[in-house]
Amino acid sequence: MSALAYRSSSDNGLSFDLLVDGVALGEVLGDGNEGIPYWIVEDDLPHWPPHGTPRDPEYRIVTVCSCGEYGCGHTRCRVIKTADTVALRDFAGDVGADGAARVFTFSRSGYEQVVSEIVAEARHQKETNGEQSAPPNGGPATPVENSRLTEGPPSVS
Predict the structure, then answer these.
(1) What is the rounded radius of gyration, in angstroms, for the C-alpha atoms of the chain?
(2) Which residue of 20, 50, 82, 142 sits 20 to 30 Å from the alpha carbon of 57, by its own alpha carbon?
(3) Dihedral (CA of 123, 17, 67, 96) sign
(4) Which helix (H) or strand (E) holds 100?
(5) Are residues 51 and 57 in contact, defined by beta-carbon separation less than 8 angstroms?
(6) For residue 53, with 0-12 CB atoms within 10 Å meaning exposed, 13-18 middle and 19 or more buried, which class applies?
(7) What 8-state DSSP symbol labels residue 132?
(8) pLDDT tens for residues 114-127?
(9) Residues in the chain with pLDDT values less than 50
């Protein structure tokens, strides 16, 4: 069983690198990506896709391009939770065949602790910035739950 941890960096305002046995996941997978930007973190590791539907509840984004835009580059994987363990498997996106075949298993309590800390830091950053889950560089925003808007702005002809 591996150990899961994370480190925060100031990249893109605030990003989170997942660490497997002390090594950044992007480095372990060889995907060339870095941390997860805070603005796509909600209540767990970010869903794939982060905004909109359909979403596979098991697929989560685990690394993102250094520019901070998941659409530019990212790696996602299936997160399989049991009573005692969590496995990251079935990697896809910017990962090669060797990385895609990797499986990492962690204690459930260790995974939940890391995710809880990431979520708390991301929420604090959003509150500090006065944001409502909006990315700072123009990406798609998460809808506010009490919003009556059902679509984007009107087009200009």
Answers:
(1) 16
(2) 20
(3) negative
(4) helix 97-100
(5) no
(6) exposed
(7) S
(8) 999 999 999 999 99
(9) 134-157
